[in-house]
Amino acid sequence: MHYVKAEGHSHPDNLPNFEKKSLIVVVTSLLYLDSMLNSEVKRLGDNYKVVYLINQIDLLPDATSKNFLLGKIQKSFRLNRVSYEDIVLMSALNPYDIDHLKGYLKSFNVPNIYLIGLQNSGKTTIFKALTGN
């Protein structure tokens, strides 16, 4: 009901080929973070520039230490041999986070940026916020 018709679908264990010299942004909800460690998505960083965008951090209590959370995620990624350029914690509903993300993505200066992730992770919300479309 909320989405446009999908042109295609790729299962996380059967990922499509991506253009070289591209940036892959793996969008995941804070609620589905563990699912990234159980799929082939974690191997993308071996061949591409990959940024993990952890969305929906606005669901956490205000007292939550974002630095502590980031450290735990980094440790988990190291233990599971997940290669990445960066990990970004944000909320797609926060205009400041979207503005920061725009500048950050532009800084990679790549011809293609792919947003991939599970359903309801915020890909469409982020895309629409970034493009104004």
CATH superfamily membership: P-loop containing nucleotide triphosphate hydrolases
Radius of gyration: 14 Å
Second rung of CATH, namely the architecture: 3-Layer(aba) Sandwich
Task: Indicate the mean pLDDT.
Answer: 86
Assembly type:
single chain
Q: Enter the CATH topology name.
A: Rossmann fold
- Number of separate domains: 1
Q: DSSP strand (E) fraction?
A: 15-25%
Distance between the termini: 17 Å
Helical content, roughly? Answer: 25-40%
Structural class: alpha/beta
Order of helices and strands: EHEHEHEH
Unreliable stretches: none
Strand order of the largest sheet: 3-2-1-4
Number of strands: 4
Strand count, sense and closure of the main sheet? Answer: 4 strands, parallel
Set out the fold topology:
Elements: E1 22-29, H1 33-36, E2 49-55, H2 66-79, E3 86-89, H3 95-106, E4 112-117, H4 123-131
Parallel strand pairs: 1-2, 1-4, 2-3
